[in-house]
Design a protein that fits this description.
The protein has about 325 residues and is mainly alpha-helical. It has 12 helices and 11 strands.
């Protein structure tokens, strides 16, 4: 059932690609992609000015069809073309986009007047919609929820916009943005923390864990040595970590994605976990796990979306998202070593 058409440009993956390009010094490519994306901005009041994914030619309609007469890799079915997730609401993409714009301005040319107008229009919509439930980073098909990761990245959107406006002396509705950013932060600490688990949880009103929270310190929302974060790490280690492998959540238990069956460990989460350890000062453990994880790559040094219990590659292969997490972790370990 977990067999999807990935031949599209995911905004989330693309912005993580920009992070990697910037870290490696390719600022012009980052600017070129942001310019391409400006042509995709729309006025959809329900889903906002950004869409989850686009065709590589920029098309926005990506209707999903099932080809029942075909079978995929190792007899996987159903075979799908198109991807219905393009119609989903995934609020985290606004934070990832804004973070990419902030980094591009930090290491490249200043944002144009028209570009800054687009940013303000985007944040005006987000300021009215950040509290909405959505399908989240997992692109779940089991119904919308108020996901912590989506809420976190909404905070990132306003935080980076404020930083950029101050750094470049840009005009902005500072008071409104500050109020929204601080309201989101308070909401996360109040409504996504579970006193029984001593952990941040996947979504409001649940006791489910999700490895996407590993991005909280990486996005500079919380200190990697904050007691609340350290106890969250222990909770994740207790339920989602097995040796080097990290599951993104517990689908068999929570049924959050609305699909039958289970899945392997999520490879990007493994690298996020290692970087969190390194940022918390556990460099020796982080380096050891990083070296072990390198052993899971194939003969070309590539990774799939997931790794099975016996080390087999599962899902989308090769997956850009995974390798971008690898680059982030490797560069941090290199700087720290």
């Amino acid at each position: 059932m977990r067999n999807w058409d990935y031949r599209f440009t995911w905004l989330r993956d693309a912005t993580f690609t920009l992070y990697a390009l910037i870290r490696l010094g390719f600022v012009e490519e980052t600017q070129a992609f942001i310019n391409w994306l400006k042509g995709r901005l729309g006025d959809d009041a329900e889903r906002g000015p950004l869409q989850v994914m686009y065709g590589i030619d920029g098309r926005q309609k990506l209707d999903e069809l099932t080809l029942d007469h075909l079978r995929g890799y190792e007899n996987s079915r159903p075979v799908r073309i198109g991807n219905a997730a393009y119609q989903q609401l995934q609020l985290d993409i606004y934070g990832e986009m804004m973070d990419a714009i902030y980094l591009a301005n930090k290491y490249g040319d200043s944002i144009s007047y028209a570009g800054w107008q687009d940013v303000q229009r985007m944040l005006e919509w987000l300021g009215k919609n950040w509290q909405r439930p959505d399908e989240g980073i997992g692109e779940v098909r089991g119904g919308t929820r108020e996901f912590l990761h989506s809420r976190l990245m909404c905070w990132v959107a306003f935080d980076r916009a404020l930083r950029l406006a101050e750094k470049r002396s840009l005009s902005a509705p500072f008071e409104a943005w500050l109020h929204t950013r601080d309201a989101i932060r308070e909401d996360i600490f109040t409504n996504f923390w579970d006193d029984d688990l001593h952990s941040f949880v996947q979504s409001k009103g649940t006791k489910d864990l999700d490895a996407s929270v590993l991005l909280m310190p990486l996005m500079r929302f919380i200190s990697p040595v904050d007691p609340m974060w350290r106890s969250t790490m222990r909770a994740i280690e207790g339920r989602l970590v097995e040796d080097t492998l990290v599951r993104r959540y517990e689908p068999e238990k929570t049924h959050v994605d609305g699909l039958p069956g289970g899945e392997g460990s999520f490879t990007a989460c493994l690298f996020w976990y290692i970087e969190c350890l390194a940022r918390a000062g556990e460099l020796e453990k982080a380096q050891l796990l990083f070296e072990k994880l390198l052993g899971y790559a194939n003969h070309l040094g590539l990774y799939s979306e997931q790794i099975g219990p016996s080390g087999q590659h599962l899902g989308n292969f090769p997956q850009a998202f995974t390798h971008l997490a690898l680059i982030s972790t490797a560069t941090y370990l290199d700087r720290s070593g």
